[in-house]
Amino acid sequence: MRWHCLGAGLALAFGLAGAARGERIGEVDTVFKLVGPDHKIVVEAFDDPKVQGVTCHLSRARKGGVSGALGLAEDPSDASIACRQVGPITIPKPLPDKEEVFSESASILFKRVRVVRMFDRKRQVLVYLTYSDKLIEGSPKNAISTVPLLGAQPGTAGR
Questions:
Q1: What pLDDT digit, counting tens, does each position of 3-30 carry?
Q2: Domain boundaries, the chain
């Protein structure tokens, strides 16, 4: 039983849940570092893996310096998100009320930046929440973006 729990913990820590990966769109330097890369704000895009026609853009801080170059730095918890309809929205299967759609490491082992899609059934709106978490403690810093399902038949997007 102990090994099963360890395996589950490692799967969570390394984000093996099948969420989308980001495509780097661009970055800006925010702090000059004499040794190693500068601190940056990185902008990434990802398509919702279960909702065709919706793309999210995520901006977040990345630490530079020697520890950042070696992948040992813990990135700040600051992030922003904007999700938009970029084509006809198609939802092939019913959506759960809440589902992680993006996850990426923000430190060498235990911190992740996550995006969770929630379905507001009453208003027929997809709500995307970004936040960071740690295995031991989380962060209250978060941001949301919404995409209305205009023209969708009520209840067809969810279970």
A1: 333 333 333 333 334 467 779 999 888 7
A2: 2-148
